[in-house]
Amino acid sequence: MSNTNIGKQAAGGVAAGLVRDGMVVGIGTGSTVVYFIEALGRRVQTEGLKIRAIPTSEATVAHASRWGIPLVPLTPQTRPDLTIDGADEANPRLDLIKGGGGALLREKLVAAAAAEFVVIADSSKRVEHLGAFPLPLAVVPFAVPTVAAQLKDEFEVTPRLRLLADGEPYITDDGLYILDLPFGLIKRPAILDKRLKVITGVVETGIFIGLAKRLLLGHPDGRVENIYPAD
Fold first, then answer.
1. Interacting residues of 194 by C-beta distance below 8 A, sequence separation 6+
2. Considering only Cβ atoms within 10 Å of each terminal Cβ, which end of the chain, N or C, has fewer?
3. pLDDT by residue (tens digit) across 210-226?
4. Residues 20-48 pLDDT 10s
5. Where do the annotations place substrate binding (predicted)?
6. Residue 88 carries which DSSP code?
7. Residue 98 marked in a binding site
């Protein structure tokens, strides 16, 4: 197992230990979350842990189902007590860039609905400033050409339409396209998030502001660091 995956597995295991009997748990999407699902599934199978989980993607539905984790939709009656999800970048304030796995819209909905949102990541995801990882933008397919043109004019950034291996556009579970924006450095993520959201055709951004209460950062030696938002 690579050093990166050791960190992911360690963080996922610690996160699974936060889940208590009777909880509604939001489950994110991505490679780190896979380890959380497996650790949580083992608890369900061996301890008889009684939970309900809200998945953020069809990929998470499939993996959680394989581990026997009961799934429910997000409703006013099933708001998560705890949501666990990964991140592509996390700064000291625990502002995040997410969406590398394509599920940013549902991930933000489930994170925002949770009583507590905990992020799991390997140590490479901790950064001083957001932006080295291209910022995902979920866009209505019809609007992609006009949104891309407006982004070039207003932000001097060249969006990249996310594609599959066969060259076809990547389509999210909600039927959206994703534009990846290589900003390089995002000094004021909250302001950028607001400016992007007013563009007609943009559904959601991969900037997560003020949602994460804690970061479980997994290191190559298997150690997991608890990090809280800096003031």
1. none
2. C
3. 999 999 999 999 999 99
4. 999 999 999 999 999 999 999 999 999 99
5. 29-32, 85-88, 98-101, 125
6. S
7. yes
What radius of gyration do the chain's Cα atoms show?
Answer: 17
- Catalytic pick from 58, 107, 116, 204? 107
86 among annotated binding-site residues: yes
Domains and CATH numbers, the chain: 3-128+209-222 (3.40.50.1360), 135-202 (3.30.70.260)
Token readout for 22 is 């009777």
CB 199 within 8 A of CB 104: no
Answer yes or no: is 230 a known binding residue.
no
What lies within 8 Å, CB to CB, of 13 at 6+ separation is: 35, 36, 39, 224
CA dihedral 201, 206, 207, 213 (to 10 degrees): 140
Q: Is 32 annotated as a binding residue?
A: yes
The one-letter amino acid at 231: D
